[in-house]
């Protein structure tokens, strides 16, 4: 292990050489800061991000005018991020269908959060519940293979083929 005096540190974010996969450019800026910069250009924040969001909302509203019950689909987990997103989508005047991928490992709190938020916003929910034995087998395989992102089986888009 390197001593703290000789440990290379990013000149912007203070991530150091102990972070897996990190590299530094000639100015001492890490590759993760460069990824952040790239993403921020594509997905801006602040007033520019709000403007882009509203442009997307208007396009969805225009495309969804054809007597459809829903004009968008929003994934919900019961956590803060998806709860806030579904609130903002509804606030913007969209008609979302909330979807939830239940891998049978949900906490009671997450399930309650989903129910409370959607009831308060008057939003329909479609929940897809996986076969518990099959999912546990997949998860066990990922664990034995040493996959670092244990949520990979849940996040994999191939599981969302039912929508």
Can you describe what's shown?
This protein has a 3-stranded parallel sheet with strand order 1-2-3, covered by helices on one side. It has helices at 31-42, 46-63, 80-91, 108-121, 132-145, 152-155; strands at 72-75, 96-102, 125-129. The chain has 6 helices and 3 strands. It has 163 residues and is mostly helical. The protein is flat. The chain folds into 2 domains: 1-43, no CATH class; 44-129, Rossmann fold, CATH 3.40.50.620. Helix 3 runs parallel beside helix 4 (108-121).
Largest sheet: 3 strands, parallel
Q: Please, what is the average pLDDT?
A: 87
Query: Ends: how far apart?
Result: 48 Å
Q: In percent, how helical is the residue content?
A: 40-55%
The helix/strand series, from N terminus to C terminus, equals HHEHEHEHH
The general outline is flat
Number of helices: 6
CATH class category name of the largest domain:
Alpha Beta
In short:
The protein is mainly α and 163 residues long. The chain is built from 6 helices and 3 strands, in the order ααβαβαβαα.
For this entry, give a set of tags.
Rossmann fold; flat; disordered C terminus; 3-stranded parallel β-sheet; 2 domains; 163 residues; 6 helices; single chain; mainly alpha
Helices, strands, pairings?
Elements: H1 31-42, H2 46-63, E1 72-75, H3 80-91, E2 96-102, H4 108-121, E3 125-129, H5 132-145, H6 152-155
Parallel strand pairs: 1-2, 2-3
Helix pairs in contact: 3-4
């Amino acid at each position: 292990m390197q001593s703290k005096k000789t440990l290379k540190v990013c000149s912007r974010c203070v991530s150091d050489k102990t972070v897996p996969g990190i590299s530094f450019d000639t100015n001492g800026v890490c590759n993760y800061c460069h990824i952040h910069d790239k993403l921020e250009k594509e997905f801006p924040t602040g007033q520019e991000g709000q403007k882009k969001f509203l442009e997307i909302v208007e396009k969805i509203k225009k495309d969804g005018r054809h007597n459809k019950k829903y004009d968008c689909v929003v994934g919900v987990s019961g956590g803060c991020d998806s709860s806030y997103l579904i609130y903002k989508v509804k606030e913007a005047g969209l008609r979302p269908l909330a979807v939830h991928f239940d891998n049978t490992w949900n906490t009671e709190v997450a399930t309650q959060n989903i129910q409370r938020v959607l009831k308060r916003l008057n939003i329909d929910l479609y929940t897809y519940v996986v076969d518990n034995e099959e999912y546990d087998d997949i998860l066990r395989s990922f664990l034995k293979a040493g996959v670092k992102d244990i949520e990979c089986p849940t996040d994999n888009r191939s599981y969302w083929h039912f929508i």
